[in-house]
Design goal:
about 375 residues, nine-stranded mixed β-sheet, alpha+beta, two-stranded antiparallel sheet, single chain, Peroxisomal Thiolase, Chain A, domain 1, about 30% helix, Beta-ketoacyl-ACP synthase III, binds coenzyme A, ACP_syn_III_C, 13 strands
C-alpha cells in the first residue's frame, strides 16, 4: 500500500467475499434422513416407549420447516455423514498441526474473494479479525492462522458474539480505522455451524448451514472507487439463556450422544422470536434517528438470516410497510441460518444494483442476546 496516502479516519466497506460449500441438503433429503433415524429410535426403544418410560420420536416435515422458517436448503461441508442416520454430524478428517485447519481454509477462501474484488494484495492489510460463532480451537487464534496463510503483517485475533460476530467485527474494525490504529482490516466469519447443530433434534435440525464470509473495512483514503461509506455502527447485548450451547473445555462430554444435547445448540425458538423482534426493530429506529436517517427511506435491509417471519416483522417496523424481496432480500432459503455470516451473504449477493447515494442497513441478531447495526451508503 502506498505510504504517501493520508488516512482520513473515515471507515468504509471496500469489498466483501464469500465461500459457499459445494454440497447442499434439501429439506426433502434432510427430513428423509431424520425420519429414518426417528423410526429406528422408536423401534430400538419400543419396549420403553410402550411402558411409558420414553417418548416416541415424532417425524419431521418439509412443510413445517419451510412454513416456520423459510428455509428450503442449506450448504454443508460434509453432506453424506450429516444425512447418514447412524452419524448425523459432520465428519471432517482431523488435520495435522502443520496443515491449514478447515475453519482457516474456508476463511482464507472468503478473504481472497474480498481482496480480489477490492484489488488488494494481502500485504495491504493491517489486521485480521476472525469473528464467528464457534472457533475450531481456543488457540492459537484462527485469525492468526488465517493471517499467516494470507501473508498479512500486523495483528489478528478471534472474537465470538454468536450470530452478531460479523457486525461486532465490523464495528471493531471501523473503530481501528477511526482511531488510526489500522488502515485496512479483514473481518472474516467462517461458520461451520453443522458442527454445533443437533441434527437429531426435531425442533432445530433444519436450522443451520455452513459458509464463510469476509468484509474488508478500510480507511476512505484508500478505498476503491466503488465502496460503501459506513455511516454509523451500533452494538447491543442483553443476557438470555434462550439460545445456548454449553460445549467447552470444562465439559467435554461427547457432543453427538443423546445424553448431552446441551453441548450443542439449543434454543427456545418461540421466545427468541418474540423477544428479539421488538428489541432489534427499536434499536434500528433509534440508531437511524441518531444518524439523522429516515428509516422509511432506507433503500435496502440486509438482515440476519434466521427466520423469514422475523425479518418480515422487523422490516415492516423499520420501513413502515411490508417489505418485498428487493427491500429485504432473503438468502435463508438456500443457505439456511449461517449465524454471523447471514446478513453479510445477503449484502454480498444483493448490493451491486444500488446507486451512489442510496443507503441501507446491515443488521445481525442472535444469541447473547446480541445485535449489531451497520448503516452504509453506496459511494463511487
Ligand atoms: N417438523 C414438524 N413439526 C414440528 C417440527 C418439525 N421439524 N418441529 C416442531 N414441530 C411442531 C411442534 O411440535 C409444535 O407442535 P404443537 O403445536 O403440536 O406442539 C409445532 O410444530 C410448533 O412448534 P414451535 O417450535 O412452536 O414452532 P415455531 O413456529 O416457533 O418455529 C422456529 C420454530 C425455530 C423455526 C422459530 O421459532 C424460529 O425461527 N425462532 C427464532 C429462532 C432464531 O432466530 N434463533 C436464532 C438462532 S441463532
Amino acid at each position: 500500500m502506498r505510504a504517501d496516502i493520508v488516512p482520513t479516519g473515515r471507515p468504509v466497506i471496500s469489498a466483501t467475499g464469500l465461500f459457499t460449500p459445494e454440497e447442499s441438503i434439501s429439506n426433502e433429503e434432510l427430513v428423509a434422513s431424520f425420519n429414518l433415524y426417528s423410526e429406528r429410535y422408536n423401534a430400538e426403544n419400543a419396549a420403553a416407549i410402550a411402558a411409558g418410560e420414553l417418548d416416541a420420536m415424532q417425524p419431521s416435515s418439509v412443510e413445517f420447516i419451510e412454513k416456520a422458517s423459510g428455509i428450503k436448503a442449506r450448504h454443508v461441508m460434509t453432506k453424506a455423514s450429516v444425512l447418514d442416520p447412524a452419524i448425523m454430524a459432520p465428519r471432517i478428517e482431523e488435520r495435522g498441526d502443520e496443515e491449514l485447519s478447515i475453519l482457516a481454509e474456508i476463511g482464507v477462501a472468503a478473504a481472497r474473494d474480498a481482496l480480489r474484488r477490492a484489488g488488494r494484495e494481502p500485504s495491504d492489510v493491517d489486521a485480521v479479525l476472525c469473528a464467528a460463532s464457534n472457533m475450531q480451537r481456543p488457540y492459537p487464534a484462527m485469525a492468526i492462522e488465517i493471517q499467516q496463510a494470507l501473508g498479512i503483517e500486523g495483528f489478528a485475533f478471534d472474537m465470538n458474539v454468536a450470530c452478531s460476530s460479523a457486525t461486532f467485527g465490523i464495528q471493531t474494525a471501523a473503530d481501528y480505522i477511526r482511531a488510526g490504529n489500522a488502515r485496512s482490516v479483514l473481518v472474516i466469519s467462517p461458520e461451520i455451524t453443522s458442527g454445533h447443530l443437533n441434527w437429531r433434534d426435531r425442533d432445530s435440525h433444519f436450522i443451520f448451514g455452513d459458509v464463510a464470509t469476509a468484509v474488508l473495512v478500510e480507511d476512505a483514503a484508500l478505498a476503491p472507487e466503488s465502496h460503501w461509506d459506513i455511516l454509523g455502527t451500533r452494538l447491543k447485548t442483553v443476557f438470555s439463556n434462550n439460545i445456548r450451547n454449553n460445549f467447552g473445555f470444562l465439559n467435554r462430554a461427547h457432543p453427538e450422544t443423546a445424553e448431552t444435547p446441551d453441548k450443542l445448540f439449543v434454543q427456545e425458538g418461540r421466545k427468541v422470536f418474540k423477544e428479539v423482534v421488538p428489541m432489534v426493530a427499536q434499536m434500528i429506529v433509534e440508531e437511524a434517528e441518531r444518524l439523522s436517517i429516515d428509516p422509511r427511506k432506507l433503500r435496502r435491509l440486509w438482515l440476519h438470516q434466521a427466520n423469514a417471519g422475523m425479518n418480515r416483522l422487523i422490516a415492516q417496523r423499520v420501513l413502515g410497510h411490508e417489505a418485498d424481496e428487493d427491500e429485504s432480500p432473503t438468502v435463508l432459503d438456500t443457505y439456511g441460518n449461517t449465524s454471523s455470516a447471514g446478513s453479510i451473504i445477503a449484502f454480498h449477493q444483493h448490493s451491486e444494483d444500488l446507486q451512489p447515494g442510496e443507503a441501507g442497513l446491515i443488521c445481525s441478531f442472535g444469541a447473547g442476546y446480541s445485535a449489531g447495526t451497520v448503516f452504509v451508503r453506496k459511494a463511487g
